[in-house]
Amino acid sequence: MKFDILTIFPNIFGSYVSESILWRAQKKKLIKIRTHNLRDAAKDRHKTIDDKPYGGGPGMVMMVEPVYKTLKKIKKAKKSQVILLDPAGRQFSQKMAEKFSQLDQLIFICGRYEGVDARVNKFIDQKISIGPYVLSGGELPALTIVEAVTRLIPGVLGNKESLLEETFSNNSFKIQSRGRGTKFKINYEYPQYTRPEIFAYQEKGKKKKLSVPRILLSGNHQVIGEWRRKHRK
Ligand code: SAM
After folding, report:
1. Which of 81, 119, 167, 193 could serve as 212's disulfide partner, Cβ 3.0–4.6 Å?
2. Where, in this chain's numbering, is S-adenosyl-L-methionine bound (predicted)?
């Protein structure tokens, strides 16, 4: 899977994609992450990529031309999607991440300032928001999607089973049919514990302790499985 990210801040990505799962996935050649500096496609020597909005109003708007030129330069795979990050776009979800993980290439356009000239709509497949709030740029949203999608690519995670049990995974949707219509209830992952068995701490000068539920120490996987199903968050 190839990820191509159009941005005016390519350096934002360096350290995040050079650690942990994203780094391992690149080393295993399961994914490729490339950034494209939109300023390289600017027309003037000052590398201008934004201008005042027509009709007036606050802030600056990113020009469509550098985006168009950069998109034209990127070799597109057959199964690809061009995504404009936009707080007013479709809300990103695990379901979308699953669909994206079947593609060969995802291309992201990261907006800044007041966003991108609306004529960019002609060159994108969809607009995606990572949540109902406004960030300063599309770089964190792009990284969020890259990471959520990468985790689903076969071979990326060491333990395949962790995907099956994970919150929002297919397994975690329970269909409830009551009278008219069908409802989906999300089963979040069960609580997890690790060593020590008893964690001692202080609260208002008094010694306290927190123990791991005994059942998890029983070694009985059937009973543990039932407990986990019952205790999904
Ligand atoms: N003026 C825009 C508005 O009111 O909708 C906000 C622009 S925002 C300051 C700059 C850029 O950050 C956007 O063009 C978009 O690329 C990105 N962005 C901000 N919040 C986002 C979100 N929740 N999801 C996806 N992208 C977001």
Report:
1. 193
2. 111
181 found inside a domain: no
Residues whose beta carbon lies within 6 Å of some atom of ligand 1: 85-88, 110-112, 114-115, 129-131, 133-138, 141
pTM of the model: 0.91
Number of domains in the chain: 1
Instruction: Provide the greatest CA pair distance for the chain.
Output: 70
- The token duo for 62 is 């990113």
**85 CA from centroid of ligand 1 (Å):** 7
User: Cα(138) to centroid of ligand 1, in Å?
Assistant: 6
Residue 29 is which amino acid? Answer: K
Task: Answer yes or no: is 55 a known binding residue.
Answer: no
Q: pLDDT tens across 107-162, in order?
A: 999 999 999 999 999 999 999 999 999 999 999 999 999 999 999 999 999 876 67
Q: How far apart are CA 70 and CA 51, in angstroms?
A: 18
